[in-house]
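Students often ask why inverse folding is considered easier than folding. One informal answer: many sequences map to the same fold, so there is more than one right answer. In these notes we will look at a single instance of the problem. The structure comes first.
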């Protein structure tokens, strides 16, 4: 099984496990989110250690160690991206499985179990045509002030959505043109979405235009831009203008 096939398979299976946990009726609300996180994480961590024992591993739900820092190949996973949405039985949550090589998000898969979809780097599809009025996905509960300001300047329509993976995949799937985030994230929030977006020919960078670099000692990665290439320069200019 290739790395890309493994990423997609694990993301899909973890998604099915999460749907089973949610459908069991045993957990509700926050306890559902906790149970889902722990169960999916256990599966992903054990599977990756079994299948790729020489690689490094970083997961949101496991204690981090310095061991990964010496590795060229590092898997970065988020067992449930959008725990709140998962716990509320919404569809806008995701499972992230990425392989970063020398810090670059090279391979990955993002499962959207609530929609029955897995988007992956090895089978990119054509991104649908852009809408006449650009659509910008933002947090459904706390949209970032910078994103709101940029949207007003460029005349974009704001679309509220849950997890980072769901928002990034909305751009890949042609449901939005821009995903601008400035509210604070970690490497596991964006590694797989960035890999999938780049494989589909989209732009993915920090909001100063610099590349997304992973497997850092400090996993905090507070900002992100994933968008159609025709919007990248304009959005980056507007962000810079805001200071």
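Output (designed amino acids):
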């Amino acid at each position: 099984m290739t790395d890309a096939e493994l990423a997609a398979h694990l993301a899909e299976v973890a998604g099915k496990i999460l749907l089973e946990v949610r459908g069991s009726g045993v957990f509700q609300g926050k306890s559902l989110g906790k149970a889902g996180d722990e169960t999916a994480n256990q599966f992903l961590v054990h599977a990756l250690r079994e299948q790729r024992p020489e690689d490094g591993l970083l997961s949101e739900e496991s204690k981090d160690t310095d061991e990964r820092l010496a590795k060229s190949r590092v898997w970065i996973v988020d067992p449930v991206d959008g725990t709140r949405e998962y716990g509320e039985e919404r569809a806008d949550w995701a499972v992230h499985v990425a392989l970063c090589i020398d810090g670059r998000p090279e391979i990955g898969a993002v499962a959207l179990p609530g929609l029955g979809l897995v988007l992956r780097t090895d089978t990119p599809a054509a991104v649908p045509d852009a809408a006449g009025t650009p659509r910008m996905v933002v947090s459904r509960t706390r949209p970032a002030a910078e994103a709101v300001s940029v949207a007003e300047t460029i005349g974009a329509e704001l679309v509220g959505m849950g997890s980072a993976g769901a928002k990034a995949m909305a751009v890949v799937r042609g449901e939005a043109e821009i995903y601008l985030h400035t509210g604070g994230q970690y490497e596991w929030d964006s590694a797989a979405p960035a890999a999938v977006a780049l494989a589909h020919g989209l732009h993915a960078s920090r909001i100063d235009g610099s590349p997304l670099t992973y497997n850092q000692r400090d996993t905090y990665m507070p900002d992100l831009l994933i968008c159609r290439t025709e919007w990248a320069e304009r959005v980056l200019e507007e962000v810079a203008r805001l200071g």
